[in-house]
Amino acid sequence: MTESDLPVVNLTPGRWGDPAHEVELPAAALEALKHLGVRRPPAPVEPAAPSAPDDVVVKLLVELLGSEQVKTDLETRWGHTRGYSTPDLLRHRAGDTTDMPAAVVYPGSHDEVQALLTTCSEHRVAVVPYAGGTSVVGGLAAQGTAFVAVDLRRLDRLVEIDEVSRTATIEAGVRGTAAEALLAERGYTLGHFPQSYEGASIGGYAATRSSGQSSAGYGRFDQMVVGLTLATPRGTIELGNAPMSAAGPDLRQLVLGSEGSLGIITSVVLRIRPRPAERSFEGWRFASFDQGLTAIRRLAQDGPLPTVLRLSDEAETAINLADPDVLGGGSGGVLAIVGFEGTRTSVRHAEVAEVLAAAGGESLGEGPGETWRQGRYRAPYLRDPLLDEGALVETLETAGFWSALPALKAGVTEAFVNELSGQGTPPIVLCHVSHVYETGASIYFTVISAQTDDPVAQWRQAKTAASQAIAAAGGTITHHHAVGTDHRDAYAAEIGPLAIETLQAVKRVLDPNGILSPGILIPPTP
Amino acid sequence: MTESDLPVVNLTPGRWGDPAHEVELPAAALEALKHLGVRRPPAPVEPAAPSAPDDVVVKLLVELLGSEQVKTDLETRWGHTRGYSTPDLLRHRAGDTTDMPAAVVYPGSHDEVQALLTTCSEHRVAVVPYAGGTSVVGGLAAQGTAFVAVDLRRLDRLVEIDEVSRTATIEAGVRGTAAEALLAERGYTLGHFPQSYEGASIGGYAATRSSGQSSAGYGRFDQMVVGLTLATPRGTIELGNAPMSAAGPDLRQLVLGSEGSLGIITSVVLRIRPRPAERSFEGWRFASFDQGLTAIRRLAQDGPLPTVLRLSDEAETAINLADPDVLGGGSGGVLAIVGFEGTRTSVRHAEVAEVLAAAGGESLGEGPGETWRQGRYRAPYLRDPLLDEGALVETLETAGFWSALPALKAGVTEAFVNELSGQGTPPIVLCHVSHVYETGASIYFTVISAQTDDPVAQWRQAKTAASQAIAAAGGTITHHHAVGTDHRDAYAAEIGPLAIETLQAVKRVLDPNGILSPGILIPPTP
Q1: What CATH number is given to the structural domain containing A193?
Q2: What is the pLDDT of residue A278?
């Protein structure tokens, strides 16, 4: 089975993924939770009665899109409330309806999105785009105001493939899985496989600068975008006459990562590649994380670069390996996953093996690689039963230059341990390198502890401490999860007040009435 | 001799490059010019008396920087008047002082640049940054207003090398040649070798999105920048905490290509690479430009990619080859240059050769490759004696997606031929592919004809026709020469009025009094 065979999953907030794929925790995990002091939390409750949508607004939307494409029933609205961060899931379980959209609309084309934004701007109706719904940073709820969720699932077309230029024009509502299936029919792939792959959409990838697990080989999503169409309250912007240009600033890079705050991306032109003829995934053991880090840096800087390159630290290696014998009879060390896709993979494989062995690595063969590949979308499924048991479990990621990574990793780990231990819930902190570049890499943390009585506040404090540690070590507040509302203050501090002013100025031009995703990414103008 | 051995050339406008390297036209070229109807133009004249600088402004600048760093003498001002487009050279020969700066200042640090901008903004004094002075798009003169040229040559430090992250922090005034020499001492290279290499600077590369002749292997300059510092009238912006980030739009890409209109870039953090252990350059013959285009597209899309990859069309191949036998006894066809630098070049070389041969190419060995390498910075030197003889000679470049390139090339060629023939000066039009990407490439034209009595107007009309052809074929108005004033209207049409409004809004935030490079890149707010 390959990525293009995976079905489209219509996610509903509250629990991740396809219900058929739900997992049970192994007995060993339940035992481990006891050691963390985990206790069963209160049972989930039904959503509280939400505020009613504004009749005038609903009438306006129905006139524009027709009554079938405007939903105000509780189930639809609750199904579009927040995304998949742990605080989102906890609030869902608590029946908290504060972030519920007043209505959900389903425009069917760029022109309908454009008309919707023009009209909503005239009538000062706030809108937030909703595609896959997989945000983990609070990117789906307008802050402090009633809003309409703009569900893009009807923008579901592969518009065009240019086989000479190897580009595909794809609408924003196409899910990652659907895009791969559509491209596979023609022999192509995007090669973009983030952990949210089963639910996330093309438009969301673009709006949040997503990065997939094969980014070493295929690049980040923002590197795949060569053109885009943006609907704004002031009209449509189309960008991308050439792969690269010296005609002024690259405004595509201003729209990518704008998270619905400057407009709604309705389609993108993406670089595509032929489907790989071969693929193989392999495990490698290193004596320590530091040794492994030097080895993968070697590949990132001098090549050749495999398609997938990941390195777990000691704690993650110990916890995540189903079979402890895989590292050679419990001798410790850390696990790297090295994957190859494409043609001539055996040649590159041999060159990579030479570099890794010279750096102290030991090949573990395809066993651990295949285990990782088959489980690559499973981690989010584990969180739900862990939350059921009363564990706090969440992830956090950052990136920095290679020389900054050791201090960045140590600082974030220490912040989590100190803050959560101080709250009486000492955590386990796992870490891996998830994406590599010539000049640096991203690191990804998983944190597990017992929940306190107020787990939302518990995590907020822990995340604040970790975010301060990221800033202190000179890292970026997010490498591939985006900003949303959760990272907004840290983001503003990272780029500084003058840079924030420039974004506010761009927003005032495109969204003069401030209807687009209020409070997401860009702090409101004072 | 390698790039790091080339001396820094202090260019003075009017004639390109190092006077010691001036060339004489071969007799065959002089003969060819006769066929174009070329006649000797009027002799160059001395510059007209320029307007005197404003005493109040000069006093202000002297208070800020000291009298030694403020120059108002005619020679210095004339030496900072315009750049190296053919219209610039023609106006220089005509003694036209309309674009002459009122004064030239030499700040010595970021803090001095920052103080200068703050003060100039308070007093409404227009400034235009000047580093290498190699603009070919009218990027060095404020339009319609007196201005001060800010010569950045004293920002000349290699500030820091981070050998773990493989980055170098380099000030904006460092010339390309100086940067290579400084990096070579530590065993590194940028690998950025544009044709302006002898004169251009790091700050100019960044501000104009320069692209070098080795871009297939080393990337464009904007892809080398991982961090930057920008001085603006409102204060300093520092960007780049990580190689890549999902924290909002990539604002580095808003500054890159801003051509001094949003601030003055005072330093950049650049990805560096080890100096290549090996290098080789080879010529390949293809039966036609179309066949060669398909062959190099194969490499750009499926790899492996050489470091240098260029393809001349039939006309350029015929004109530029010193030895007509090089293509196999005058059998026609087109020439591609394929260069390799780094390690394992022989392995990559063999793989590339296999691809090119399968696409119909025939290896010509290292002869034509070495000829190209040794002459890679010589073309601009040829223009001066051609102008001396009365020829009109200028270049123009664009980029587009692969599927658009044939129509783009045909459209631009036809526009030049029709327009210049219509003026009674039928041209020769040469073309080559200069930079390749997976989804497209840039094409670069050289146009030669006789001059009319008003060669500035002659070229303006020809370029307008060519620019319209670019727009009609969906290309970008510039791939690596930037916008300046010459491309401003075409640029505005390319990205559209709403996108232009966003740039104007950003400019208003950073430059509220509009003192930065007025009229360059961004059209004035109506």
Answers
A1: 3.30.465.10
A2: 86
Provide ipTM, 2 decimals. Answer: 0.96
pLDDT in tens, B179-227: 999 999 999 999 999 999 999 999 999 999 999 999 999 999 999 999 9
- Same domain for A144 and A8, yes or no, is yes
Per-residue model confidence as pLDDT tens digits over A101-120: 999 999 999 999 999 999 99
Q: At B330, is the pLDDT very low, low, confident or very high (cuts 50, 70, 90)?
A: low
Check B162 against A343: CB less than 8 A apart: no
B219 shares its domain with B267: yes
> Which residues, at least 6 apart from A245, have a Cβ–Cβ distance to it below 8 Å?
B209, B399, B476, B478, B479
The residue among B398, B515, B411, B392 whose CA lies nearest residue B456 is B392
Task: Kindly tell me if the per-residue pLDDT of A330 is higher than 70.
Answer: no
Taking each helix axis as running N to C, give the angle between helix A55-65 and helix A110-122, from 0 to 180 degrees, rounded to the nearest 10: 150
Do B41 and B124 have their domain in common?
Answer: yes
Residues in a beta bridge with B365: B283
B259 φ/ψ sector (left φ>0, alpha ψ -120 to 50, else beta): left
Residues B163, B126 within the same domain: no
Nearest residue of B to residue A489, measured between CA atoms: B247
Contact list, A242 vs chain B (CB under 8 Å): 398-401, 440, 442, 475-476, 479
Look at residue A58 in the predicted model and tell me its pLDDT. 96
pTM over 0.95: yes
Beta carbons within 8 Å of A63's beta carbon, 6+ residues apart: none
Verify whether the Cβ–Cβ distance B480 to A165 is below 8 Å: no
Establish if B424 belongs to a structural domain: no
| Domain hosting residue B315, numbered range | 278-374
In a domain, A415, yes or no: no
Extract the tokens encoding A223.
Answer: 């590197």
Residue in chain A nearest B235 by alpha carbon: A498
Whether residue A144 sits in one domain with residue A51: yes
Report CA torsion sign: A6, A12, A17, A22: negative
| Final residue of a structural domain among A358, A374, A390 | A374
Mention every residue, 6+ apart, whose C-beta is less than 8 A from residue A349: A280, A282, A306, A340
Best residue in A165, A479, A488, A508 to probe B by mutation, most B CBs within 10 Å? A165
Contact state of B248 with A502 under an 8 Å Cβ cutoff? no
- Inter-chain residue contact B243 with A495, CB threshold 8 Å: no
Dihedrals phi, psi of A58, to nearest 5 degrees = -60, -40
Contact A400, A473 (CB under 8 A): yes
Query: Hey, what are A232's tokens?
Result: 């704004």
> Is B417 part of a structural domain of the chain?
no
Q: Using the beta-carbon criterion (under 8 Å), do A243 and B438 form an inter-chain contact?
A: yes
pLDDT classification of B329: cutoffs 50, 70, 90:
very low
Average pLDDT, chain A: 94
Q: What is the mean pLDDT of residues B346-361?
A: 92
Which of B237, B268, B439, B491 would you mutate first to test chain A, the one with the most A CBs within 10 A? B439
Q: Report the residue of B135, B215, B236, B241 to disrupt the A interface, i.e. the one with the largest count of A CBs within 10 Å.
A: B241
The answer to whether residues A487 and A209 touch, using CB atoms and an 8 Å cutoff, is no
**Same domain (yes/no): B261, B284:** no
Q: Which residues in chain A are contacts of B208 at CB distance < 8 A? A: 246
Judge if A354 and A333 occupy the same domain.
yes
Tokens, residue B319: 């004109």
Tokens of A129: 């785009």
Chain B nearest C-alpha distance from A393 (Å): 22
Domain tally, chain B: 3
What values do phi and psi take at A420, rounded to 5? -75, -35
* B154 to chain A, closest Cα gap in Å: 26
Q: Which CATH number is A368's domain given?
A: 3.30.70.3450
Name the minimum distance, in Å, from the CA of A310 to any CA of chain B.
Answer: 17
Measured between CB atoms, which of A237, A248, A399 is closest to B244?
A399
